[in-house]
Amino acid sequence: MNEETMNGNQNVEPAVSAPEAETSVPPVSPEQEMINQRNLARKEEQEALKRENERQEACVKVVGEQFGYYGLLSLAYGIIYSLCLYKNTSGILVPVFTAVSYGMAYLVLKKMNMPIKKWSYYLAALSLLISISTCRTASYFFIFFNKQAVLLLWWVFWLHQFYEDDAWNIGKYFCTIFQFLFRIVCALGYPFKHCASYVKSLKNQKSRNVVLVLFGVVVAIPLVSILTILLSEADMVFQNILTTFLDTFLKPSTVIGVVAKTLFGVVAFYCIICEVSRKGIREEVEDRRKQEPIVAITAMGLVGVLYVMFCGIQIVYLFMGKGVLPDDMTYSEYARQGFFQLVFVSLLNLVLVLLCLKYFKKNRVLNVVLTIISLCTYVMMASAGYRMMLYISEYHLTLLRILVLWFLAVLAVLMAGVLMIIYRNDFPLFRYCIVVISAAYFALAWSKPDFIIARYNMSHEAELSYDSVYYLTHLSADAAPEVSKLIGSKWDEYGNVQNYLAWSHKEMSWRTYNFSYAKAKQYQ
């Protein structure tokens, strides 16, 4: 091999390798970026929900760990609930049960180290007063609505104590009440779960004590039975009381009813404790005032023009007595003709104004339009009230006519709150409504409308007819002091008065004592 060849081999340069391909991430499309963000937000929401559920379960676990206290409290509540309200809708124990309920609530709040808020005192006091009015009346109408009013105030009491409800509107509060009731039902398993855990956690000494107590009860049963027989033979008064007690409370149907009512009270109260401890209802109120106000200004402006024209006619024809009525129409007929329409329109105006304030952006022009509609609503309510007064002067009082006048008065006060919230968005309208409606209802229930009806109609005795006397003798026992004045009159011949007074008499025990029935008994 020659030298050149050797040199050539030595001078051969090494092959240059191709550059390595650069690794790069393909660009993400806007659609994919949006999907990723949505998935991330969903994941964060699920994690937040999981943490919230864990927090709520931890709160309920604390209640379960203190089952000895809360369980005993619930048991006492159930027993008192059954004792006071079993087959007793209007007796003297109704306000006693209301007082006990709020006393039990105070013990729960004290155990949870929660101070009682100022407005809670108002709710408790008004509930007690309404309950007292229940044992003062024999009207089934007011007995029923008294119960509903006390229940509503009871739910509001719990929500107000455990949530910051200052910014809640009417819609938020009613939705929260229904949500609260639903969550109480969903907590139905906690009483039984906590009871089972508590029994298992009892220490040996406590278990022995429980067994000894049960053994003592078993031993006492035959001993008490023998002593009861001997004592009943020794004293006839004791025997009569014992017989009455056994006939009343130891019938199979009575025992089943009492036990069922007691269990319901125990479970319901414990479920309330578990639910309020969780505080699982959102407190935030979403701001929905996002719609452009021009739509509301246009629509409500046209309505306002119509209302101004209508109110002008009311002032001229009805209030000032000027103008000419249609032929063959009296003022009483004119008064009755449009009354219910005016009441409906007044209520509709209240709803429309609240809807505008809830969904449309704040605007000065819209506020002026809503103010005009609110003021026109006052004229309409005055017109409706005046029409009803004309009609009452002609055809006297009934419960429906009193309720309508009461409703108009309440609506007028509520409308003042609506006027406030038009210019002050932070005005607590729901709390204002609760105070107004509950106080007005208490005044109505306490006044015994059946008695007022009878007294007013009896003051026009010369104008009574068979139909009006028939109506009077079908009122509740509240009207007995006035209806009894018909005894010996020409209306007594029909037998309605005596039948009414006999019907107004009701046998009462110490549990079911009612002041109205007791007073009616004096006029038999």
UniProtKB/TrEMBL annotation:
Q: Which UniProt keywords apply?
A: Membrane, Transmembrane, Transmembrane helix
Keyword Ligase recorded: no
Question: By its UniProt entry, which InterPro entries does this protein fall under?
Answer: DUF4153
Show the segment(s) annotated as Disordered.
Answer: 1-37
List all membrane-crossing ranges: 67-86, 92-109, 121-145, 170-190, 210-232, 252-273, 294-319, 339-360, 365-386, 398-422, 429-447
Q: Which domain of life is it from?
A: Bacteria
Compositional bias annotation for Polar residues: 1-12
Q: What is this protein called in UniProt? A: Uncharacterized protein
